[in-house]
């Protein structure tokens, strides 16, 4: 009975063992799936199907064993305990060994992850550049992953074959298996960091282009992110596995018939594998976090280097663009020795403009040099190509500056030696013992008399002209005296040959200056030189020396508007003087003068005052300004704006109407025109004083005495004849009279015989009170 009771207990233990084997088979299927998900690659559908097939085969084998045991118990209900127990013990050992193998697989994966990450971290800090071999890293990695998947699935399917093997044979293979799995190179390549090869190539100095570096860095980041997902899944699965299994030491035995030594060794091995999984998992997390931090720093360094290189390339491109533009203009410049004298000033102005552009270009060159300095300061290796580009930019910039400096010096020397302001150009305007020189203080000409060793501002010819003007002082009427002096100056300066179109061309050379600016000596010479060259070509007998004409005209303008040589001659004054002394109709002169000071067809009181002030300087030059109001132009301005009822501005119409009334301040100008018109006029009349016939010039007929005519010389000197008196009204004729004019004057003479008419002024008086 005791034997039967013992066998019954053994049978019950056996059936419990069989049930446990069934539970272990189901758990094995779940573990296979968990381990399959724990690896860092994503299995293909074929591999998943193969794994599931192996699990189904294992379940089928377990079911067959269970069925065979049930049949054996059915045939021998009371016996078979020891043999079945022995087979069950062998199966339990085989199954437990299969679980250990899976533990070792999972440990190997985690260990390989740690090893690969440690190797990646052990590499030297790479510079911010990438490697061309990055392109093949994805393909090589996928090949390794596929090979590793096959090994992992083969290891999973080998559990079925291990059920049929003996425990002794498995124990012999157990120790070398664990050692070999730890050193398997394929498992290390599973989680190999793509940047490992990249960092190695960067450390060797390969790769230089910023755009591929940035692209490859982004590609490496994507691979890191993908592998990060796999590693996190591995860590999660490892934690899940550890939570699902109790790795604590057993406090009781599994069964009476179990081999205590084998069971204890399996439990110890399982606990060791579980603890190894936990340690390797924590180490994997730490290493992976450290690798992520270093890769993030490396990625930032790559992007920063790419931005610096792009900035350098952009600065070099801007420098090359601006340099090419300026170099093209410099190449098209005419050599200094081929320039004409009147072109020297424009060439100098153009050279100064180019020099200004080159100075502005220095900003771009400095930006390129600073960008290169920032790249080198960041310990980034720079290729020879950008270095050569930067050296070329600096050399071209220096060559351009040197070329412009040389050209500027050549133009300056040409202007000094042969230009308008040089002594060599205008030294023909004076004869020995006189010498023309340029003052260093105001850059204006003065004249040296080597006989008396004295200097003066006035041209020697101008001094002679001033003496000749004194012969007109015998003229009693101020307006005619002033007009005759100015007419003599006009003819002596050859300005009576200049018309308005020629003046417009002359003034175009001063287009860059406003009316308030000073043209300077060079500006006046460059404007007057082409003018008198043209006059010399048309009238060679009248303009015999261009140098004398130019120098004399400049001296006239300086004496007129800048007698103290302070450099105060304005462009407006320069134009007004030339227009007044030009050969044009009186109304055309008035219109041109008004347009000089008008804006949009209107002139205010200030600009009209400026015009009248410059006009009054002309009679002041010959000492006749007092009779025309002097320098006080306010009464004349007030008289002018009375035409528009003191409006703030005046147009051309009222201005011309006011001037036609011959106001006192400018009455000398129409008188000068009448003198010029009557200069060669011949009148069929005889002077009753000097007996000149025909009368040449102005003719004066008395409107009270019958048939009494005077020539201009007798009239200006106030000579009389017969009963004629100076207070008698006179009629002036600049051109020969017509029959209607003779009849009109005869009627006026008869009327004056019988009645006295009030005398009237021949000009518009200006109230200076």
From TrEMBL:
Keywords: Actin-binding, Calcium, Cell membrane, Coiled coil, Cytoplasm, Cytoskeleton, Membrane, Metal-binding, Zinc, Zinc-finger. Residues 154-167 have a biased composition (Low complexity). Pfam families: EF-hand_2, EF-hand_3, WW, ZZ. It is a peripheral membrane protein. One of its GO terms (cellular component) is cytoplasm. Transmembrane segments: none annotated. It is found in: Cell membrane, Sarcolemma; Cytoplasm, Cytoskeleton. Residues 682-738 form the ZZ-type domain. Its main location: membrane. GO terms for molecular function: actin binding; zinc ion binding. Residues 309-364 form a coiled coil. Residues 123-177 are annotated as: Disordered. InterPro entries: EF-hand-dom_pair (IPR011992), EF-hand_dom_typ1 (IPR015153), EF-hand_dom_typ2 (IPR015154), KCMF1/Dystrophin (IPR050774), WW_dom (IPR001202), WW_dom_sf (IPR036020), Znf_ZZ (IPR000433), Znf_ZZ_sf (IPR043145). The keyword Hydrolase does not apply. Residues 428-462 form the WW domain. One of its GO terms (biological process) is modulation of chemical synaptic transmission. It comes from the Eukaryota. This is Zinc finger, ZZ type. It comes from Ancylostoma ceylanicum.
